[in-house]
Structure formats: structure tokens, C-alpha cells
Amino acid sequence: MTRLYDDPSTFTDDMLAGFLDVHRGTVTGVPGGVVRATETPPGKVAVVVGGGSGHYPAFCGVVGPGFADGAVVGNIFTSPSAQDAYSVGRVAAGSAGLLFSTGNYAGDVMNFTLAQQRLCQEGIDTRVVFVTDDIASAPESQIGERRGIAGDFVVFKVAGAAAEEGYDLDAVERVARHANASTRTLGVAFDGCTLPGGTAPLFTVPRGRMGVGLGIHGEPGVGEDTLPPAAELARRLVSGVVAEKPAGSGNRVTAILNGLGTTKYEELFVVWRTVARLLAEEGLQVVAPEVGELVTSLDMAGCSLTLVFLDDELERLWCAPAETPAFRRGRVEPRAPARRDVGSRSEQPAGGRLSEEPSAPAPGSPASRACAQTVVSALEAMAAAMAGAEVELGRIDAAAGDGDHGRGMVKGSSAAVDAGRDAADAGAGAQSVLLTAGEAWAAKAGGTSGVLWGAMLCAIGRGLGDDREKITGSDVADAVAAGLRALLDLGKAKPGDKTMVDAFAPFCEALTGRVRSGAELPAAWREAARVCESAAEATAGLRPQIGRARPLAERSVGTPDAGATSLALCALAVADVLQPAR
Amino acid sequence: MTRLYDDPSTFTDDMLAGFLDVHRGTVTGVPGGVVRATETPPGKVAVVVGGGSGHYPAFCGVVGPGFADGAVVGNIFTSPSAQDAYSVGRVAAGSAGLLFSTGNYAGDVMNFTLAQQRLCQEGIDTRVVFVTDDIASAPESQIGERRGIAGDFVVFKVAGAAAEEGYDLDAVERVARHANASTRTLGVAFDGCTLPGGTAPLFTVPRGRMGVGLGIHGEPGVGEDTLPPAAELARRLVSGVVAEKPAGSGNRVTAILNGLGTTKYEELFVVWRTVARLLAEEGLQVVAPEVGELVTSLDMAGCSLTLVFLDDELERLWCAPAETPAFRRGRVEPRAPARRDVGSRSEQPAGGRLSEEPSAPAPGSPASRACAQTVVSALEAMAAAMAGAEVELGRIDAAAGDGDHGRGMVKGSSAAVDAGRDAADAGAGAQSVLLTAGEAWAAKAGGTSGVLWGAMLCAIGRGLGDDREKITGSDVADAVAAGLRALLDLGKAKPGDKTMVDAFAPFCEALTGRVRSGAELPAAWREAARVCESAAEATAGLRPQIGRARPLAERSVGTPDAGATSLALCALAVADVLQPAR
């Protein structure tokens, strides 16, 4: 279990501060993550990788010549925010464009795509490649739905080497996609990890058993089996990945036998002994394999085997030199690049993900400013509700996912309160308060829920505006419906997927219906919140998706969806603000 | 816990086979361990490091240019045998002599010293430096009694860099001793590791507590305390090692914050953040620190802080380039060295510690050959007793040490049976059978008990000779007394130290007394064996030493000493051979 921390809520920043101190000659902290200590040379494509933290040496450990130009660093197992990705990409990008690459998880997909859009709008040609190597997470026919695990390392390395060789952005994107299409991983888990401050692992595996098809965010396997001797485990891993050899592949491969955290090097070497023999028996020639900890999951017990079916280009790029804090190969020819000038950032406290200054909001109309005060009270009530429910939300999230939902909601809602209150105190209207609050929520919480709540609040704010002379119950219901549309557009979840959509849609419908029937907003909201609560409870049971991964397998979970639950709690908390309980 | 293995008894060989496959361009397997894949250049001192395995990347992971020339690889947490150390040293040594370096543990001290003596006899100038960095294992006034933990890494690195720079043997030895004298480590443990095939960890620490002063062989701490927040832990580690700053040291240091196996990188970076601040507050300037897993203890939870008080020479050597499987720094200037020709060894199965051919023993007199048959039966009975007691011996060893005693006794006694039987079948006398059996025991078991049992059997054999016309009970008692003297000479334990000496000395005295009183050998042996059994039981309780470490602290252990217990079991088993129970 994770035992060493100061404040669990600042674990990632504290970790980054230590990392940046040790490797201060090589990497530099910027808002949202880390970049190389040297400027991106003119004409070189920048490769920025990332995702949540808890995977060291992935991903901040692979920033350096021959590998990544920067890493966006989210909280433990939580997607970084779009703001984080934008910030790191903005610093890392030189004149030749930018490639983002991250694992194919809902939160990462949303946040990196939003960052890509913003960077493109600012004139920086930006592409995104999502890694999908985990063969257990979806059938081969739905390869685009698979999640990225240890194969991340391969795609990032190949893209980084290509950029170092002088490939242009089209070519870097092409070879990254090709590396991803050539990479297959299968993993097994023997025990779950414990989050900093947590008291129990996210899952456990009975002694003598193993989870098959692990995730790297503490997700349990998609199946379970007997834990076999090392040689038999090697056989299953090899046969699993070899069965997915892409059509037309040759006989040269590279391999990663990756330890998740507490499966140690000695054990991995014992397994590798048989893996090497079996690959030879398959007629495969193994080039530059890696056996060790490359993409971990805190102190999770387990390992995975990645095979990359090589052509000459992939082999050259995989074998190319790299010099990073955690991974070195060969000799990178020294250039004499300019030290990066991070300007006033270097005056900020050493290490950690530094923050940017917000801009001042526009003033609102009297009615909108009054509404803004109610919005701030509502945000305060939501933050209090989330603080009270944090542990329980984490618990029910861990049943199906990675257990970070409670922490993310607390971070997001409290950041929204602070930002929204400042804006309201400065005279902003409802729209500006909600835009400020939504951006703060997304930036501080990161992850899937962060970006969705951020988008929802912003959409509701745009629905309310800053300039209205009067704000009616119907205006509020319409604004909330705009929030629902933003959720559906960004999150791609459909009704029935057992996500927060299943609680939000009935809430919207009830709110609109009650208001249109002539009810006052406070009464209408309370009734709608009760509908929302029942709908959230109904998300328990058979569900088509597990945690942050794309749909994996039908699985019965006895607890309701964490996102739906927190939405209902927020709706009820706001009802108490609109119509205080007597 | 360790979950991935095939046969626990071949775990180290299986691990080495995998390691050698992955790193086949860099390292080569030889009997007893690994060496660089290239010849030691003419005029270069060879640095051979080692100890038991289970510490990866220590020690086979640091063989390469700028670091070690070879690593002797014992079984998990078990000293390699003198034969292993001799073998690796013989292959690695070039024309400029050899430095052995290993941690200061009884078994390693005996085995590497025996190997040194043999190599010196063969004309290879060989020195040994034992590392003593663990400040918790003995007071500063008894610094030579301390054990080596993560400081091993520093001493090995500095010696390897000095040899690479062209230092002569005197100078390499001098700087290795200086590095050791400048290095201090303090560690803490949060939970014990589980040996391959074991069902429980070697020790556990209650939740919220920590052992202070850990060993790297699964030894628990020498004290216990509350597990504090990371910043407070950093403060205790820093204040502990800084308090031992050697007189006359300057303000430049390097540091290793080492993870033992399941304390992960993220946690170490969180601790490092405060360590770095505190060292700066102490006025110390930190050069090229390392934060990560350098000297592990399988899946043990814990960490240690090592400080090295640098002068210009140590700083240059610590910062010098190195290229090894697990540790790389800077750029080693490429030479074009000869690939090592390991001759017929390369024809042997890939990887693992390859074995050498034994030579044929001399034929014995009829009486000695008859005695030899009894010796073989006695060895068989001992091996059977050890096989039956393996788990229990491991359990009681784990109470004070590293839990490997049962496995070592099984390996040693069964190897002794095989070798002794072959020699007896070939017509050897008692001396030759016991010499063969003793050498096999020491070579296969390794560790402390292996070298001691090997020396005891050899001494008993020399006492019995190959040429006697008659072998009396008195001859046997005298030979056994010679065995005791060998034990005392080699092991340095004194009566009352609660080791096997405390069981063997009363046994010898009783056997000699009964035989001199006119008893027949079978009856005398049985009575002496009962005395031995009682004496072994009396080793329970307060004891001055813990496991394989030198005397550490008074500690009450409820179980008898494992070595004394196995000696008594062997004595009783032999009694049944001499006088079968009716």
C-alpha cells in the first residue's frame, strides 16, 4: 500500500516537486506538467505525452532527448485537465507542430481533444494519437475502443524518436498510429494498489488466483483464473498476444515484460526466461526487449506482456537513442540547445504544477449579479455535499473504476467555489461566475468528471447570460438543459449506459416539466432533485462499462454509478439553497 | 509477496537465465555468477561484487563499463559459496589483480575471504572490502561490525569507476575503503517480503508502525516506531545520517533514497522533496543524487537514505560514466574490447550459474571404505531430516534472521549426499567422501551455514583419513572435535552467542566423555545427540545477534537458534543410523 505522503490531496504536486529536484538538469516544471530543460529546437515536432500519475516511470520519467518533449501530469489515475494539456503543449511546441499521445480513456480523450482544439485555434498544428494496445479490454473488431496500457511506452518512444530524427508532423502522427496498430498487450493482476491516504486496496484477488486483463489504474481484471507457475503464465501471455499478430507482420518483434509495481524484477526475469523460449518457438526474433517497471500502477501486483510487430522503420525508432530520467538507450548525440527560459514561472515555488493567473470577468446586470450570488451559494452547498460524501463516493467508484471520483469531485467543487466567489465579489454576472467556476473545476479536478462538470457549468452559465434584466424559472430550466446537451456532446455516453446522464436527463425533464406547469423554481428544483436521486440509485446493477475504460464486458455491480450519485447529491444540496428546509 | 516462480529451489538460476537473455549483449553467465561480455582489459583491476540475490538491480544489474566487472550471485538472501566467488573472480581477473566487495555479513565474509585466499594462492592478488554503512546495526564505536545495505551501491560504483580510470589495486582498495568510511545509511521497513514459495512474509509491521533500522534480507528493524507523515520521516532519516557526519568532511554529499521493493517511486519523490530541503538547511550541497530502487529486498516495503560525504576524488568517481543493465550515467567512452571467450561454458545451457566438473577422489583403505559407507548413510539420514524440517527451520530462522536456513540446509545436505555417494561408490575412503561432500555442501548451499557445514565436514574427514586400518569411537570423537575447531576458527562465534556452537560444543564434550568412559560409539553418539538437542533448545531467549547481521542489540526471541536446531536434528538422525531404533 502507499504509505508515504504528507497531504494526500497534494500527493501529485509533492511527488513532482521531488522528481523535479532530482532531475533538475534534465526537466523543468511548467503549469500542468513537465518539459525538457532545453527549448524544442526549430523545425522539430514536439511530442507531449501524458495521463494521470501513479505510473512512474510513465510519464514524466520519459521526458528527454529521443523521447518526449513534455509530459502532462494529472492527479493519481486521473486525466489531466484540458487546461493542463494545453499549458504543457503550449510551452513544448516549437515551430513544427505538436503531437499529443495518451491512453484511450474517456477523460484523457476529452481533455486532450479540447486542448488540441484550443492549440489549433491559436495556430499550433496539433494532432492526438490515443493508444489502444490492451487486447483484453475489447474484441479485435472494436480495436478503437481498447484502452492503452504498457503499449503507451512503445508509441511514445517511437513518436519521440521520429520527431528527434526530423520527421514532420504528418509523419510523426503516421508512425505513432502505425506503432499503436502494431502493438498488443495482455496483463494479469495479483492484487490492487492503495491510493495515498486510502486504507484498503482498490481491489483484492484471492490467494492463488489472478485477474486477467488488468488496467493500469487499479482496475481489476476482466476475468479471473488460477495463478499458474511462471512458465505457464508466460505461455498464456505469449499465446494471447501472438494470436493477435497483425496481418502481414514479419518475424521481428520487440517486447516489454512490464511490472505493475510490486511484482519484482527477479520474478519478471523468471517469467521472461520462458517468454523468450516461446517467442523463439513461434519463429519470432526479439529485438531490444525491456523487462522491468515501465508503466506501473502504484503498488499494484501484476505484470503484462507487450509485443510490437516491427518493420524496419519501427525497429529503427524503437532502438534509437534516448536519454530521460528513467529510460536511457545508446548515446544521444549532444546538440548545444538553448536552456528553456520559463520566465516568471521559475520565480514560483520549486517543482509542482504551477498555476496560471485568471483574467478578470466582465461586470453583470443587477439581476444577473443577484443570480450570481445564488449560484455561489449553490456551489458552496455542492462543495459541502461533496466533502461529506468523498469517502463514500470513492468507495462506490472503486467497485467499478479506480476510486478517484470522490477526490475529484471535492477538488473540482471547492475550486469552483473559490473561483466563482471571487468573480461574484468582483461584480460578475451569472454567466461569468459559472464560466469561471467551470474552468476552475475542470482545471483542478482533471479526469472525466472534471471536464464534464466544467463543460456543464459553462453551458449553464452561457444559458443564463450576464445581461438579463430578469431570470425566470424557465430560463434556469433551459440553461440546465443546455448543460445536459454539453454533457451528451462531450461525454458521448448514451442514456442507459449507467453514467451521470441517466440521472441528469430525468432531472432536466422533471425540472422543465414542473416549471412549465407553473411551479416556482425552488419547489420544481426540489421535485426534480428527488427524481434525480431515484434515477441515480437505479444505475446499480448490470452495467456495460467498467470505470474509465471503454465498454469492456457486462458486469454486475451492486452499487450505483458514482457520477450519477454525486450529481444527485449536488442537485439535492442546491434544492436546500433555493428553498431552505424548515 | 513473490508469486511468480516455477521451482522455488531453482528460482535464482531461473532468474539469472532470464536476466542473461535480456542483457545478452552486455553480460555473460559463468559458474557462480555473471561477468561483462567483454574481457577485462590488460592492466585494469577487476572489481567483483556480490552477495545473495533478491536485491535487483544489485548486484548482477551493475556489471558493465564504469561499474563492476563481475557479480557473484548467491541464492535469495544467501551468501554465494566460496567456490562461486572464486569462480567469478578467476574469470574476471585480468593482469592487474582483483577487488572483491560485498556487504559485511558473516556468510559473505567467510566465503569471499576463502575465495580471496585461494585466488592469492594461485597468484592473483586479491583484496576484499566489506561494506558497513548501516548505522542502525551497531554503534559508531563498533563501525566494523555494521552490515552493508544500500551503501553497497556507492562503494561498488566508486571502486568500479576507479578501476576504469586505471587505478592500481592498492589504490582501488584504498578508495573503496574510503568510500565505505564516508557512507552512512538509515532505513525503515513497513512490511516484510515473502520468499519464492513461501506463504507468509518474513515479518509484518502493524499498520501505522514502522521498523527502524531495516536489513536488506527481510530482517525486521532493530526498533519500532509510529509511521509518520513523509516529511517527518524525511527529517528522521536526515537527522540520523547527518549526526554521523565523519570528522573533517566538507559540505558536498551525494545521496541515495532507496526503495526496498514495494515502496514506489512516487512515494520516494514525495519523501525526497523534504530530504532535499533539509539537506540544504544543513548546509549540504547534494551532487547527483539517486532516488529509486537500487538495492531491493524482493517485495519488502521500506526505504533508506544513504549519504556519502564527498571529497573531490569520491565526487569524481561517483559522477563518472557507467553503462550497466540497470544503471547508466553519462557516456562511457567506447573501447573496442575483445568479446569474452567463455570456451566450453557457452555450450552449456543458456544462462544460470553453470557448474564445474569435480575431480576423481583417491581410493581408500578397506576400513576407511567401510566407514565411508556409514558416512554416506549418515549423510542420507541428515538430508532426510533436513527435508522433513525445512519449513519449521525456515520459520524459526525468520524469527531472528532471513528465513533461508531450512532451504540452505536442504540444498547443502542433499548435495553432500549425492557427491559423497558418488565418491564412496568410486571406492573413496572416509576422508575423501567427507571432503567431497563438504565441498558440495558449501558450494550448493552457499550462505553462512553452507560454508560452516562444508568446513566442518572437511575437518571431520581429515580427522578420519583415507588410510586407517581401523577406525575407533575415539577416532570419531577426535574427528568431530576437529570439526568443532574448524567451526570456531571460521565462524568466529563464541560459546554463549546462541549459535550452532552452543549445541556443537556440548555435543563434542559429551561424545568424547562417553567414548573415553568406554561406551560404544553408537550409544555414546546417541547420548551426545540428546545433550546436543537440549543445548539447542536452550538457545531460545535473549540473544546478542540478529540473523546474518553482526551483533546488533539485545533481543528476546522465543525460538531457539535455527543453526543449533538443525545441528541437533542431524546429530539425532545420525544416531539412528549408528544404532537403529528398535
Note down, in words, how this protein is organized.
- Chains A, B: InterPro entries: DhaK_dom, DhaL_dom, DhaL_dom_sf, Dihydroxyacetone_Kinase.
- Two copies of one chain form a homodimer.
- In chain A, strands 7, 8, 9, 10, 11, 12 and 13 form a seven-stranded mixed β-sheet that branches. A six-stranded mixed β-sheet of chain A has the order 1-2-4-3-5-6, with helices on both faces.
- Chain A has 16 helices and 17 strands.
- Chain A folds into two domains: 8-322, 3-Layer(aba) Sandwich (Rossmann fold); 366-578, Serine Threonine Protein Phosphatase 5, Tetratricopeptide repeat.
- Chain A has helices spanning 11-22, 82-92, 106-121, 151-165, 169-181, 230-242, 265-281, 312-319, 366-400, 405-425, 430-445, 447-464, 473-491, 501-516, 521-537, 562-578; strands at residues 27-30, 33-36, 46-53, 70-76, 98-103, 126-131, 183-191, 209-212, 223-226, 252-259, 285-286, 290-292, 301-309, 322-323, 328-329, 541-543, 555-557.
- In chain A, helix 4 (151-165) runs antiparallel to helix 5 (169-181) and helix 12 (447-464) runs antiparallel to helix 13 (473-491).
- The first copy, chain A, has 582 residues and is of the alpha/beta class.
- Chain A starts with 10 loop residues before the first helix and ends with a helix.
- The longest helix of chain A has 35 residues, at 366-400.
- Chains A and B meet through helix 1, helix 6 and helix 7 of A and helix 1, helix 6 and helix 7 of B.
